[in-house]
Amino acid sequence: MKHISDHVNIFEVGPRDGLQNEKTIVSLADKITLIEDLAEAGLKLIECGSFVSPKWVPQMANSHQVFSQIQRLPNVTYSALTPNLKGYEAAMSASTDQVAIFTAASEAFTQKNINCSIDESIQRFIPLIEQAKSQNIKVRAYVSCILGCPYEGKIAQSKVIEVTQKLIELGCYEVSLGDTIGVGTAHEARSLLSNMKNSFSTEQLALHFHDTYGQALANQYVALELGYRTFDTSVAGLGGCPYAKGASGNAATEDLVYMLQGAGMSTGIDLNKLIQAGQKICHILGRDNQSKVANALSK
Asked: Among 17, 79, 224, 232, which has the minimal tally of Cβ within 10 Å of its Cβ?
């Protein structure tokens, strides 16, 4: 791989995206421990919770206490998902460092997930982004279903580009492109991500692969070869889209770190500490660790 000294940014989504669909409610103390363990392992970008209605996402009901009580390390960004202005204001009252908004490249998925069209979802973000700009708070965006949708099947690349363009024009510093149901192959990922480079710089984009079909690492490698340097992953492979058949989880942070180390690339992450953090939270959840690397190195 070219430029093997390149640094790769890993955006850890385990405490939010990883935990939000887990049936076992994780205690406040255990969430705080997980976030502090991840920061201690060297992760600099951590999504710690979301300010959404507890009726829809009960696991995230105590996000305010999480942000209020974590021991923060310098140079770590503690981020939250905020669906609207009300959520943004709640995040700010908890001293969140930055926020994220979410939509999709699939109309059907957006309707099922947030009960509106793509355009309507983007319109809802305008007051939030304007408020964030006035307070110098960075806003990140997620675009789901870039390589396939459980309702629409294949998604046109032009739709992914169009939605991404709108979000960047609104003022999002980075758009995270998500293969939400994990159906994309390396060939499809290369085609889309090569095309995206014609419209955007790689610094404006992050990749969020799910591992439902075991394709996440291959897709991450393709993205690395194309010059992308920011990836969303989840410790122990926690999470997964509830709408995906056979959803096994997000790409595991441990597996990506191991691959990057093997390529001589820098992450600033202590793999052993990361594995310990993943094993600890899996024990609490009473579930198997989805990371191949964690399982191999813990034997």
From this structure: 224
Per residue in 24-81, pLDDT (tens digit) is: 899 999 999 999 999 999 999 999 999 999 998 999 999 999 999 999 999 999 999 9
- In the numeric block, the tokens 């052993």 are attached to 272
Q: What confidence score (pLDDT) does residue 32 get?
A: 98
Other Cβ atoms closer than 10 A to 30: 17
145 in active site: no
Helix, strand, coil distribution of the chain in percent, nearest 5: 45, 15, 40
The pLDDT confidence band at residue 109, using thresholds 50, 70 and 90, is very high
Residue 285, domain extent:
9-297
Q: Which helix (H) or strand (E) holds 177?
A: strand 174-179
- Quick check: 99 and 79 in contact, CB under 8 A? yes
For CA atoms 59, 56, 274, 71, the dihedral sign is: negative
Q: Is the dihedral of CA 8, 266, 234, 98 positive or negative?
A: negative
User: In this structure, which amino acid lies at residue 277?
Assistant: A
Say if 2 falls within a structural domain.
no
User: In the chain, how many domains are there?
Assistant: 1
Contacts of 161 (CB under 8 A, 6+ apart): 195, 196, 199
- Rounded CA-CA distance 91/171 in Å is 19
**CA–CA separation, 113 and 108 (whole Å):** 9
260 has a pLDDT exceeding 70: yes
Options 48, 149, 172, 241, the catalytic residue: 241
> Does 3 map to a domain?
no
